[in-house]
Amino acid sequence: MVYKLSNGFRRFLISTLLIASIFFASYLLGWSSFLTVKDVQISGTESTSMILTALKSKNVEPVVGQKLARVEIRSVKRVLSDLDWIASAEASRNWFAKKIEIQVLERVAVAKALTQSNSMVNFDSEGFIFNPTSIDQLKVQEALPLVSTAGDSRKDLVDVALLLKQIPADLSYLVTDLDQISVTQAGYILMNTRINSQEVRINWGSIDQIDQKFSVLQALLKLPENKGIKQVDLSEPKAPIVK
Known about the structure:
- By secondary structure, the protein is an alpha/beta fold.
- The chain folds into 2 domains: 39-106, Ubiquitin-like (UB roll); 109-242, 3-Layer(aba) Sandwich (Rossmann fold), CATH 3.40.50.
- The chain contains 7 helices and 12 strands.
- The longest helix has 24 residues, at 7-30.
- It is elongated and about 90 Å long.
């Protein structure tokens, strides 16, 4: 004899199985010891203890034995992204390996400056000002070119940051081969760098009209007579002076 299930009973059975599956998945993810953190892997920096300390201070540090589903991945990423010495941060769960993976990219300094409060700050190639913190960042401090200011150091540092940030890609070697930047009392930015392996001093003047000054410099460097250029004064971009 063949028994045929009624449509109502079939729907009841399917609903019961669905609810049971949801309860089982919730238990597995939230309460079971089966899916707990077995490892926390941090890549992109040697300063892993600083990363963990920062996360712990905000109560979002992932720890071994914690339920994988309860690790606040978005909070981990947010806390690390807020650290000024970190350029970017990612965090994810690896369900199969039962571990939390954190990837960070440290900021790389191209210059340093001493603030009015006698603290050292760094600039990256994007003009971002940050406090050197990690092992790798602290190791390179002696070798970094110094930004010196003669006037309002706060405004001067912001202007230098804007200059570094806005330098076009085809002039990026000016930052790569940077020796020193100084800012005069009048706010003129003086850059000692290298062009074609030769030492060159560039007077950018103030940060005003900086895009026009970039264009003028690019045009000047294309002229054959400027191959041995030593000094460029761009403080008045419509009347540049080349030596």
